[in-house]
Amino acid sequence: MTVRTAILGYGRSGSTLHADPLEKLKDEFRVVAVCDIERDAREKAANRFNCAIYRDYREMLKTEELDLVVIVTRSNQHCRMTCDCLRSGVNVLVTKPWAINAEEAGQMIAVARESGRMLLPWLPARWGCDLMRLRELVNSGIIGKVFMVRRREFSFGIRSDWQTQKRHGGGYLLNWGPHIIDQAMQLVGEEIKSVHGLLRQVINPGDVEDVFFATLTTTSGIILSCEFTIAIDQLPNWVIQGDRGTIFAKEKSVEIHQTDLPAHMDPTKYSNRPEIKIIREEFDGDHRYGDPFVIYPKISRAISGKIAYPVTVDSALKLTRVLDAVRLSSKKNRVINL
């Protein structure tokens, strides 16, 4: 089966992260239509794919026979567009954040169930080379029982696009939270019990945050510390702390500091410090936020009914509820219990 596909939103991400694999995977996908409000974007898409072009996605839904619509528009448009596509009988892949909040996510899930169509949240960082390898290391027990995970990204980049506007669903919590908060949650694989968040606007224009800090506590007590902040990019992106060692990861480099506590402690010493063994390696691959060329074949097989799509709507909804709690915690200046 070749998936007849439309791209809704042919901007920076739509024309690269999504269009590139759709173009290359010709045996699995055929781009039959592209919709964008900008004429220049439509012309580029028509020249690239020799496809139909539309300014109004509702006209596209009436005209084209589609198996899948890939929605890569402003965040505040995702819910309405997704529901319209689902009601038209078309499966939907919707970019992150798939919804502004849990209320929107619930509406989208309900429409998907009513229509019998598939709703596929795009959370590519779940395929990140760092997350996959770090999960292997943690599950191996090399650093013992994990009690804390720190996940961070840094930048002095200044944006001036719609991501700086609240009315468009902008802000770094919705933009980066689906990457770094979700990765920390996926690493430990436990339900979140409580959330504390802090949002700040530091250097970007507009009216939304460009910095966020989130502290999550799991049901077993593991602490997840996640942040996007304004800083020179020198600190580790990951610090995973266990009772037998610590893992540090920066870009592609990984250091595993591993130890075994002594069987017998010397009560006459102030501190019994064990020897530390350091293991160095690099992540296999360059795609810390997932490789679309790996993910899209899974989308094709899911649409064809051969596999279940790995990102379930329930897991995406859990993430959205956590992001909601981070925002509410910052507003109320208190811990939010889930």
| Fourth CATH level, the homologous superfamily of the largest domain | Dihydrodipicolinate Reductase, domain 2
Which CATH architecture of the largest domain?
Answer: 2-Layer Sandwich
Largest sheet: 9 strands, mixed
Spatial sequence of strands, sheet with the most strands:
14-13-12-11-7-10-9-8-15
Order of helices and strands: EHEHEHEHEHEHEHEEEEEEEHHE
List unreliable stretches of 5+ residues: none
- Annotation field: number of helices: 9
Provide mean pLDDT, rounded: 96
Could you explain the architecture of this structure?
The chain is an alpha/beta fold. It has 2 domains: 3-122, NAD(P)-binding Rossmann-like Domain (Rossmann fold, 3-Layer(aba) Sandwich); 126-290 and 320-337, Dihydrodipicolinate Reductase, domain 2, CATH 3.30.360.10. It has 9 helices and 15 strands. It has helices at 14-24, 39-49, 57-63, 78-87, 102-115, 129-140, 172-188, 292-303, 313-332, and strands at residues 3-8, 29-35, 52-54, 68-71, 91-94, 119-121, 146-154, 192-200, 211-218, 223-229, 238-242, 245-250, 253-258, 277-282, 336-337. The strands form 2 sheets. Strands 14-13-12-11-7-10-9-8-15 form a 9-stranded mixed β-sheet. A 6-stranded parallel β-sheet has the order 3-2-1-4-5-6, with helices on both faces. Strand 4, helix 4 (78-87) and strand 5 (91-94) form a beta-alpha-beta unit. Helix 4 (78-87) packs parallel to helix 5 and helix 7 (172-188) packs across helix 9. The longest helix has 20 residues, at 313-332. The protein is elongated, with a radius of gyration of 22 Å. The mean pLDDT is 96.
